[in-house]
Amino acid sequence: MPKADVVLEIDFDVNSPEKSVIRTNAKKEKLGETLEAWLSCQFGLGEDESELDKKDIYKIKIQLDLSDDSFYTNSDTGNKGLTCGIIICVLDNLSRIEVVDLS
To answer: What is d(CA 14, CA 25) in angstroms, rounded to the nearest whole number?
Structure first.
Protein backbone atom coordinates (compact mmCIF):
# COMPACT_ATOMS: atom_id res chain seq x y z
CA MET A 1 0.00 0.00 0.00
CA PRO A 2 1.49 3.34 -1.02
CA LYS A 3 1.94 6.12 1.48
CA ALA A 4 -0.91 8.54 0.87
CA ASP A 5 -0.72 12.09 2.16
CA VAL A 6 -3.70 13.19 0.09
CA VAL A 7 -6.66 10.95 -0.72
CA LEU A 8 -9.61 11.64 -3.02
CA GLU A 9 -12.47 9.15 -3.19
CA ILE A 10 -14.86 10.04 -5.99
CA ASP A 11 -18.33 8.58 -6.52
CA PHE A 12 -19.15 9.78 -10.03
CA ASP A 13 -22.76 9.76 -11.23
CA VAL A 14 -22.75 9.34 -15.02
CA ASN A 15 -26.36 10.45 -15.43
CA SER A 16 -26.07 13.52 -13.18
CA PRO A 17 -22.43 14.55 -12.68
CA GLU A 18 -23.49 17.32 -10.29
CA LYS A 19 -24.81 14.59 -7.94
CA SER A 20 -21.32 13.12 -7.65
CA VAL A 21 -19.51 13.19 -4.31
CA ILE A 22 -15.84 13.65 -3.45
CA ARG A 23 -14.54 12.52 -0.06
CA THR A 24 -11.09 13.88 0.67
CA ASN A 25 -8.58 15.00 3.25
CA ALA A 26 -7.31 17.67 0.82
CA LYS A 27 -8.03 21.36 1.17
CA LYS A 28 -11.09 22.10 -0.95
CA GLU A 29 -9.37 25.03 -2.66
CA LYS A 30 -6.60 22.65 -3.84
CA LEU A 31 -8.86 20.00 -5.40
CA GLY A 32 -8.77 21.45 -8.91
CA GLU A 33 -4.99 21.79 -8.84
CA THR A 34 -4.59 18.23 -7.55
CA LEU A 35 -6.90 16.75 -10.20
CA GLU A 36 -5.15 18.73 -12.95
CA ALA A 37 -1.77 17.42 -11.74
CA TRP A 38 -3.14 13.88 -11.76
CA LEU A 39 -4.41 14.34 -15.33
CA SER A 40 -1.07 15.69 -16.53
CA CYS A 41 0.61 12.54 -15.19
CA GLN A 42 -1.72 10.36 -17.29
CA PHE A 43 -0.81 11.84 -20.66
CA GLY A 44 1.68 9.81 -22.67
CA LEU A 45 1.01 6.55 -20.85
CA GLY A 46 -0.39 4.97 -23.99
CA GLU A 47 -3.79 3.76 -25.05
CA ASP A 48 -5.77 1.43 -22.82
CA GLU A 49 -7.80 -0.97 -24.94
CA SER A 50 -9.37 -2.67 -21.92
CA GLU A 51 -13.12 -3.03 -22.10
CA LEU A 52 -14.84 -0.51 -19.88
CA ASP A 53 -17.31 -1.52 -17.21
CA LYS A 54 -20.68 0.12 -17.85
CA LYS A 55 -22.19 1.53 -14.66
CA ASP A 56 -24.31 4.44 -13.49
CA ILE A 57 -21.91 5.30 -10.66
CA TYR A 58 -18.15 4.83 -10.82
CA LYS A 59 -15.77 4.84 -7.87
CA ILE A 60 -12.30 6.31 -8.30
CA LYS A 61 -9.68 6.59 -5.57
CA ILE A 62 -6.67 8.82 -6.15
CA GLN A 63 -3.82 8.84 -3.64
CA LEU A 64 -0.93 11.30 -3.66
CA ASP A 65 2.42 10.74 -1.93
CA LEU A 66 3.82 14.24 -1.40
CA SER A 67 7.35 13.00 -0.71
CA ASP A 68 7.87 12.33 -4.42
CA ASP A 69 4.61 13.64 -5.96
CA SER A 70 3.54 10.12 -6.98
CA PHE A 71 -0.08 9.34 -7.74
CA TYR A 72 -1.73 5.96 -7.23
CA THR A 73 -5.15 5.26 -8.68
CA ASN A 74 -7.80 2.59 -8.22
CA SER A 75 -11.09 2.63 -10.10
CA ASP A 76 -13.91 0.36 -11.15
CA THR A 77 -14.11 1.81 -14.67
CA GLY A 78 -12.18 -1.03 -16.29
CA ASN A 79 -10.40 1.44 -18.58
CA LYS A 80 -7.83 4.18 -17.88
CA GLY A 81 -9.20 6.39 -20.67
CA LEU A 82 -12.65 6.32 -19.08
CA THR A 83 -11.11 7.17 -15.72
CA CYS A 84 -9.41 10.21 -17.28
CA GLY A 85 -12.64 11.27 -18.96
CA ILE A 86 -14.48 11.08 -15.66
CA ILE A 87 -11.82 13.21 -13.93
CA ILE A 88 -12.13 15.81 -16.71
CA CYS A 89 -15.90 15.87 -16.15
CA VAL A 90 -15.34 16.18 -12.39
CA LEU A 91 -13.08 19.17 -13.01
CA ASP A 92 -15.70 20.76 -15.27
CA ASN A 93 -18.35 20.33 -12.57
CA LEU A 94 -16.19 20.83 -9.48
CA SER A 95 -18.07 23.89 -8.23
CA ARG A 96 -21.33 21.90 -8.26
CA ILE A 97 -20.05 18.63 -6.78
CA GLU A 98 -20.43 17.94 -3.07
CA VAL A 99 -17.09 17.71 -1.28
CA VAL A 100 -17.01 16.13 2.17
CA ASP A 101 -14.24 15.37 4.63
CA LEU A 102 -12.77 11.90 4.37
CA SER A 103 -13.55 9.90 7.46
So the answer is: 24
Domain boundaries, given as residue ranges, for the chain = 6-101
Q: How far is CA 1 from CA 43, 71, 73, 94, in A?
A: 24, 12, 11, 28
Burial of 77 (0-12, 13-18, 19+ CB in 10 A): buried
How many whole angstroms from its chain centre is CA 91? 9
Give the tens place of pLDDT for each residue, 9-54. Answer: 999 999 999 999 999 999 999 999 999 999 998 876 667 677 878 9
Q: What is the CA radius of gyration of the chain?
A: 13
| CA–CA separation, 51 and 67 (whole Å) | 34
State the CB neighbour count (10 A cutoff) for residue 68: 7
Look up the pTM and report it: 0.91
Q: How many residues in total does the chain contain?
A: 103
Identify the DSSP state of 69: T
